[in-house]
Amino acid sequence: MSDPMQLGEKFSHKIAAEFDDEVAATKAVDCLASAGIPASQINVVRPDDPDMARKVEPEVQGVARSLVKTHVSFGIVGLVVGLVIATVLVLVGPALTQSSPLMTYIAFGFLCPVLALLLAGVVSIRPDHDPVIEKTRKAHNTGRWTVVVHCESTDQQETVKKTMGSDIQSL
Hints:
Layout: E1 13-19, H1 22-34, E2 42-45, H2 52-56, H3 60-92, H4 95-99, H5 101-124, H6 130-141, E3 145-151, H7 154-164, E4 168-169
Antiparallel strand pairs: 1-3, 1-4, 2-3
């Protein structure tokens, strides 16, 4: 099942759990495999792992696609909304907007896309990934093991949460 919030990433949901040692982390990986989670979606971050960043956020190109898709689509929608609002104001709005239609179109044709692009930035930078990244980084720096699972749907995310009992997740 695909998720409508997925924009450019194949695995937009992340769940991570910390473990004291390799044995506990390996046991968690085995439990996840038994629950039907493909091994390609599971990454183990060991203490002082040089590939930590890639294991936590492997889809750099997917994030870039998300940035482009959200900014283009939100920008276009913002422009259309701004022009519709300007048209309504020019036709039936206050005297100021009716007497200066060009300035009304310029103002709303600029303001609405800018606000939409700001919203696109919030959506595309995925602030929901920050807790997963920070907890993994902290565990990495304190000598703990972390199992990071990249889920492709909310159903798979629920399965992983039940299997690992993790409190570290992205939306």
